[in-house]
Amino acid sequence: MVGIYGIGGIGKTTITKVIYNDMLDQFKHHSFLENVREGSKDDRSLLQLQEKLLRDILMDKTMKLHNVDEGIKIIKSKRYLGKVLIVLDDVDCPRKLKFLADSPEWFGGGSIIIVTTRNKHCLDVNKAYSSYEVKGLEKNKALELFSWNAFQQNHQADNYVDLCNRVLHHAKGLPLALDWGEKTVTRILEGSRFHPKIELKVLDERCLISISDGFIRMHDSLQEMGWAIVREKYPENPGEWSRLWEYEDIKSVLTKNMGSKNIEGTILNWTRVVPIQLHAEAFKKMNQLRFLEVGPDMVRLSQDFELPSRELRYLDWGGYNLASMPSNFHSDNLVVLRL
Fold first, then answer.
1. Fewest CB atoms less than 10 Å from the CB: which of 182, 184, 235, 307?
2. Quick check: helix, strand or coil at residue 270?
3. CA dist., res. 55 & res. 267, Å (int)
4. pLDDT attached to residue 163
5. 252-272 pLDDT per residue, tens
6. How many CA atoms does the CB half-sphere of 279 hold within 13 Å?
7. Is the pLDDT of residue 86 over 70?
8. 95 or 263: which carries more pLDDT confidence?
9. Could you report the per-residue pLDDT of 1-60, keeping only the tens digit for each?
10. What residue ranges in 170-262 does DSSP mark as E strands?
11. Where are the alpha helices (DSSP H) in 68-219?
């Protein structure tokens, strides 16, 4: 019994499908259960997964179960079938394994059970599974994957060689990922009265992030999910969002004085955009702002500029062009200041 874990989007399912298809001809009885996490949110859907598993290995499309306990008994009773090949893809908690494949004793000799998960804890609590982590790609493989996504070919376009090299150097083997310095993140979270050593460890175990070489890495699919959550309540009104990240949204909010107390963080750091001229009260309503990053030449400030938030933890303002900070600037809670 083998468990494969790693951050979302790194290729666990793809690897497992290749292994499964390569071994199919060695097994008369087999089953590939995809997306177990979404397909087993309650006992009814878990029962349907048990039925699917039994229909596959028994080759009986009429199989029906009354409850999950009955499902466990019947799965265990089919050891006489001999060896089976089973994949449980994207399992999110140990409870799912208890109802689908909890022990090698459930299956005949020579059986292979493979589980993929983003939650390493799933495998840690079940000692029957040997755990293997899917790590980032070597440079050449990462370049090939990035090129397929960016250019629809297996190599980078000639006029983008330098850009591709910079992107891959930043991604460090996971070409569809974002990363942050671990020390910086820890200091910001501690300054916000969180417990990062515990909470980051839990996120790492669940493969929502990965921590290595002093960096915290998050896959872009997780970032996109976060963006969708932020937009959900006020899809057409970025001034009410908790985070701002797109240039046009930020420009609209700051130049039209649309900011609100909901905004906790924003990043103004792009290349080849027109600098934003900020009036004095652009940040006046953002009294819960915690995180502010501004790249060089991104904004132009008026002399009476205000930054009233008392909650500010992180301020990184490259090219800050005033001789001093605003008179109402509060630094009591700052943990990172770069000007």
1. 235
2. coil
3. 52
4. 61
5. 999 998 999 999 999 888 766
6. 12
7. yes
8. 263
9. 999 998 776 778 888 998 999 999 999 999 999 888 877 677 788 899 999 999 999 998
10. 177-181, 210-212, 215-219, 243-244
11. 68-77, 94-100, 120-124, 139-151, 161-171, 182-191, 196-205
- Find the angle CA(127)-CA(129)-CA(134) to the nearest 5 degrees: 125
Q: Which residue has the higher pLDDT, 52 or 327?
A: 52
Look-up: residue for tokens 């996120």? 203
Query: In the structure encoding, which two tokens stand for residue 286, read together?
Result: 């953002």
The answer to whether residues 300 and 279 touch, using CB atoms and an 8 Å cutoff, is no
β-partners of residue 116 are 4
Q: What is the rounded distance in angstroms from the CA atom of residue 323 to the CA atom of residue 45?
A: 63
CA dihedral (91, 93, 94, 100) positive or negative: negative
d(CA 61, CA 67) in angstroms, rounded, equals: 18
**Cβ pair 294, 272 in contact under 8 A:** no
State both tokens at 86. 């089973």
Dihedral pair phi/psi, residue 131, rounded to 5°: -105, 140
Using alpha carbons only, what angle is made at residue 262 by residues 258 and 267, rounded to the nearest 5 degrees? Answer: 75
